[in-house]
Amino acid sequence: MTDDPQNPQTTAGPAADASAASPAAETRLLGATEIRRLAGELDVRPTKTLGQNFVIDGNTIRRIVAAAHLDPGETVLEVGPGLGSLTLGLLDAAARVVAVEIDPKLAARLPQTVAEFRPGAAGNLDVVPADALRVTELPHAPTALVANLPYNVAVPVVLHLLEHFPTLRHGLVMVQDEVADRLCAGPGNKTYGIPSLKAAWYAGMRKAGVIGMNVFWPAPKIHSGLVSFERREPPATTASRTEVFAAIDAAFAQRRKTLRAALAGWAGGADAAERTLRLAGIDPQARGERLVIGDFARIAEARHQLHAEEGERA
Ligand code: SAM
Predict the structure, then answer these.
(1) I need a labelling partner for 61 at 20 to 30 A (CA). Which of 44, 114, 237, 239 fits?
(2) Element of type H or E holding 147
(3) Who contacts 275 (Cβ-Cβ below 8 Å, separation ≥6)?
C-alpha cells in the first residue's frame, strides 16, 4: 500500500487497490482513494458505536466474496454496507443485493456510489435504511447473508436474521476474530458458549479465515475473523426454540457450576433439575460446556414432560 490507509481523508497517493487503476472499470472496487473521497464528501466521522470500520482493500473484498460461494442467481442480504466497499463486490457475484444500513447518511449515498461504479447493476440494489436487529421484512427474500458486521452487535444480528429470514440458506460474515471463534467453537473448547449453541440451532458454522487490521479505515485494534455458515434443520424436538434457548441461557449464566446447580432456578429447584436431566439422559454433574444443541433440546423437552406428569398427578 503506498498511502496511509489509516488516514484516507488527509493523505494523497495512488489507490490502495490495484484494480482501481485497471481498465476494467466495471469491476473496480473501492480503495483508500475512493474511501477518502466518499468520506470527505459526506463528512463521515466513523463511530465506534456503530462499528464503522470500512474496508479499503479490494483483495479483502475479493476474498470475502470468493469465500461466500455465491450462485449468480442469488439475492444477498448485506448488513451495514457503509460506503459500499463490499456491496460492489457482491453486485458482481449475485443477482441482487438488499443492503440494510442504520446510518441514514450512508444509506442515502449508497445508490449513487453504485450508479457511479456499477452503472449496469444499479437496478439490482435495494437499500433499506434500518436497524438490522429490527428488520422482519425485506423487499426481496434473501438466500445468503454476506456482511462485514458491526462488531458490537454481530451475534444478535446473525441470530435475529437466521430467525426471521428462513430463506437464508448460507452466508459469510466478518466479525471480531474472538467472536468468530465463539460462533464456531465445539463442546469442551474454552470459547464454547451461548453464541456457539444458539448459532448451532440454525446452522453449521465454520471459521473461514482471519483478516488483519490494516485493510480497514479506521483500523480496529483487533483481528477480524471470517465465519461461513450453512443452514440446517434444528434438532427435532417438541420444545420450542425459545424454551431451548432459555435452558442454554440458564446453563451458561453459571458456567462453572454443574448442570444440576446451574439449572435449579430454571427447573424449579435442584431436585427438579436433576430429574429433568436424568430424563433427558444427561449426567446432572456435567457442565453446560460439554453439551451440544441436541442435548439442550432434550433437556427443554424433558422439562415439559415432567411438568405434564406433575400436572396429571396434582
Ligand atoms: N460493509 C462496509 C465495509 O465493509 O466497508 C462497512 C462495514 S462497518 C464494519 C459496519 C456497518 O454497519 C457501518 O456502515 C454501520 O453504520 C452499520 N451498522 C451498525 N449497526 C447497524 C445496525 N444495527 N443495523 C444496520 N447497520 C448497522
Answers:
(1) 44
(2) strand 144-148
(3) 306
Cell numbers describing residue 238 = 417438541
Q: Is the CB of 50 under 6 A from ligand 1?
A: yes
Class of domain 241-313: mainly alpha
In 3D space, the residue among 247, 80, 68, 243 whose CA is nearest the CA of residue 161 turns out to be 80
Residues of the chain with CATH 3.40.50.150: 29-231
Kindly give the distance from the C-alpha atom of residue 173 to the centroid of ligand 1, in angstroms, as a whole number: 12
Q: Which atom of ligand 1 lies closest to the CA of 150? A: 10
What's residue 38's pLDDT? 96
Tell me the CA–centroid distance for residue 198 and ligand 1, in Å: 23
Pocket probe for ligand 1: among 54, 65, 78, 172, the residue whose CB has the most ligand atoms within 8 Å is: 54
Q: Is 85 in the pocket of ligand 1 (CB under 6 A)?
A: yes
Distance 54 CA to ligand 1 centre (A): 8
Mean pLDDT across 117-133:
97
The answer to whether the beta carbons of residues 65 and 36 sit under 8 Å apart is no
Q: Which helix (H) or strand (E) holds 106?
A: helix 104-117
Name the CATH superfamily, with its identifier, for domain 29-231: Vaccinia Virus protein VP39 (3.40.50.150)
Round the average pLDDT of the chain to a whole number and report it: 92
Instruction: Output the nine-digit C-alpha cell for 227.
Output: 465465519
Q: Tell me the CA–centroid distance for residue 23 and ligand 1, in Å.
A: 30
Q: What pLDDT shows up at residue 24?
A: 57
Domain with CATH 1.10.8.100 in the chain: 241-313
